[in-house]
Amino acid sequence: MGKSLYQKVWDAHTVGKLADGRTQLFIGTHLIHEVTSPQAFGMLRDLGLTVKYPQRTFATVDHIVPTENQDQPVDPLAAEMMSALRDNCDDFGVTYFDLKSGKQGIVHVVGPEQGITQPGTTIACGDSHTATHGAFGAIAFGIGTTQVRDVLATQTLAMEPLKVRRIEVTGQLRPGVYAKDVTLHIIRILGAKGGIGYAYEYAGNVFDDMSMEERMTVCNMAIEGGARCGYVNPDAKTIAYLQGRPYVDMSDFDTTAARWLSFASDSDAHYDDVVKIDAADIEPTVTWGISPDHGIAISETIPDPAKASTALEKASIDEALAYMKLPAGAPIKGQKIDVAFIGSCTNGRLSDFREVAKYIQGHKVAAGVKAIAVPGSQIVAHQCEQEGIDKIFSAAGFEWRGAGCSMCLAMNPDKLVGDQLCASSSNRNFKGRQGSPTGRTVLMSPVMVAAAAIAGSIADARELFELEPQAAVA
Amino acid sequence: MALEKITSVSGRAVFVPGADIDTDRIIPARFMKCVTFDGLGEFAFYDVRFDPNTGEKTNHPLNDSRFDGATILLAGVNFGCGSSREHAPQSLSKYGFKAVVAESFAEIFFGNSTGLAMPCVCLTAAEIDQLRQAVEADPSVEITLDMANKRVRSSTGLDFGFNMPESARDALVAGRWDPIQELLDREPQIADLAKALHYV
């Protein structure tokens, strides 16, 4: 029997077994940012240790960066965190893509952009959305701060292997259905805890046909389905994306590319579970509650607790609707929004802004809606500005911002106020996630966010924009 | 560097209801603007313990004085999901919790907690409900996690076998929950592997 990519990468990176039975796993690439690394460097110093392989760690600043004036943190604690990262990188010789580099951005946008993210590798970062890098056929996962210390000190982690679930999505995606809808649909079906203990292998013609950026959107949200990592097997698109990027060794690229491709799952690989999904069943999907698995198609109604099949389900719907202040049984379409956010490590890449720009020309953000567009990196911002995409967003009434995590989470000035409802291209609709303890988040694709911004309420982008079949995903 | 062997954890318990309690709920992101973990304890569950509009205490179980001093947290499914922030188990630990008993845990939270010597063990929903009933009827009831024999017991006579990955249990019981020394000890093997792998 053959091996899955997960098994191949795991085996290649195994140093040995630890006394407690865990595997000591070599981490090829380590990414750090300002929020979860300072304590790790502190622990390292307390133990009198150093960064063993500084060339394998890359840093950037993203969570706390203000997006209006990037280099002016409004509060002293944020400034302290940024300067701590600078000092730590200087002290230990770690590469730092800082605000002045022109390469700063969300860590999960920067890694692929620089070609640091490569197939067949292990990637760890103190951030759960590290799963994003699985789009390249890497085994990439989030870790805690003590583990950041372990990687800094030894370039290894104590790990338990995961089982592998292959999720096959085949057939034809319908017009207006994006990678975001595919990933929200998978989480809706398998649940927010369905992936506990698993790595997700995304397979089938739908993922084959996706661009690398779309694959990143899908893998990014593996963690929202409980899977610590998700991946797509590397193929010709993976190679084409990486060719010529700054951190890709071009000296013998054919050999490199062949080695990368060799990590793809064997056709007779063993899987612990297989789930099959028909692409035609997927509609533009939005969330209605407080967990990413609270998803419904845009044409559906908000769940009614009276129709719940168990007491547990009823309690869960009651809690979610009490928080979301949404009417049970009513259509989700037409629910008023206050804020629209396009950005984040899920949907803050060039293709996301290009796609939205195709449709918003000639439209205006509805009165009373605050709409912000936040590129995932300075390079994405620069590319958008070269193509005039920023002007299209501004003309439509979006605020065009600098690169950062922005309103995905509440660590910078971009926050919801009171119980504002945000149509968001980000990844989490948890209570309070977007900075107000009573703020409400409805997750959706960037094009659906744009439609909501223009309509002033949750809308079906297919109707508003008269969407044509998509060449890229069809 | 001898570590404490976590063979048994005992204390009074408090039940925090709800499925999919995420780490944003456990420690809201705004409290992560810090360069140390000190002081995180007071912010555990902050936004559900205090009314966002009035700042008044809510009826959250952690505000119920009957459960003051509880050191064992009882919870539901998928506890600790979402963000990888170690700030979450750090805040629970600094708040005073020594162990969490739930139906299931998100993996990153589980691993972070083990690394802090805070065991996370699983029981069924029905078993947790019996423990909840016991402590809510009498908050002085003592709960014990017998790590060596994989049991959760109450002073009222409840006695359940718990589930936990064997490696994590071993790490706690044998006092090797912080793996750093063992990881460091393999430096030559790490160097050999690093050379053999094709990284730039």
According to CATH, the homologous superfamily of chain B is Aconitase, domain 4
Number of domains of chain A: 2
Would you count the extended β strands of chain B for me?
7
Strand segment count of chain A? 19
List SSEs of chain B in N-to-C order: EHHEHEHEHEEEHHH
Gap from first CA to last CA of chain A: 33 Å
Task: Give the quaternary arrangement of the chains.
Answer: heterodimer
Q: Looking at CATH, which topology of chain B would you report?
A: Aconitase, domain 4
Structural notes for this entry:
Chain B: Residues 5-117 form the Aconitase A/isopropylmalate dehydratase small subunit swivel domain. Chain A is an alpha/beta fold and 474 residues long. Chain A folds into two domains: 5-274, Aconitase, domain 3, CATH 3.30.499.10; 332-465, Aconitase, domain 3, CATH 3.30.499.10. In chain A, 33% of the residues lie in helices and 16% in strands. In chain A, a hairpin with a 5-residue loop joins strand 1 and strand 2. In chain A, helix 2 (38-46) crosses helix 5, helix 6 (179-190) packs parallel to helix 8 and helix 13 runs parallel beside helix 16 (446-455). The longest helix of chain A has 17 residues, at 76-92. Chain B has a single domain (8-175), classed as Aconitase, domain 4. Helices cover 31% and strands 15% of the residues of chain B. The longest helix of chain B is centred in the middle third of the chain and has 13 residues, at 125-137.
Short note summarizing the structure:
Chain B: Belongs to the LeuD family. LeuD type 1 subfamily. With 474 residues, chain A is an alpha/beta fold.
Question: What are the SSEs and their pairings?
Answer:
The complex is a heterodimer of chains A (474) and B (200).
Chain A: H1 5-12, E1 14-17, E2 23-26, E3 29-32, H2 38-46, E4 57-60, H3 76-92, E5 95-97, H4 107-114, E6 122-125, E7 139-142, H5 145-154, E8 156-159, E9 163-170, H6 179-190, E10 198-203, H7 205-209, H8 212-220, E11 229-231, H9 236-242, H10 253-262, E12 273-278, E13 285-287, E14 295-297, H11 311-324, E15 339-342, H12 344-347, H13 350-360, E16 370-373, H14 378-386, H15 389-396, E17 399-400, E18 421-424, E19 440-443, H16 446-455, H17 461-464
Helix pairs in contact in A: 2-5, 6-8, 13-15, 13-16
Chain B: E1 8-15, H1 23-26, H2 46-49, E2 72-74, H3 87-95, E3 99-102, H4 107-114, E4 120-122, H5 125-137, E5 142-146, E6 151-154, E7 159-161, H6 166-173, H7 180-185, H8 187-196
Family (chain B): Belongs to the LeuD family. LeuD type 1 subfamily.
Domain Aconitase A/isopropylmalate dehydratase small subunit swivel (chain B): 5-117
Subunit structure (chain B): Heterodimer of LeuC and LeuD.
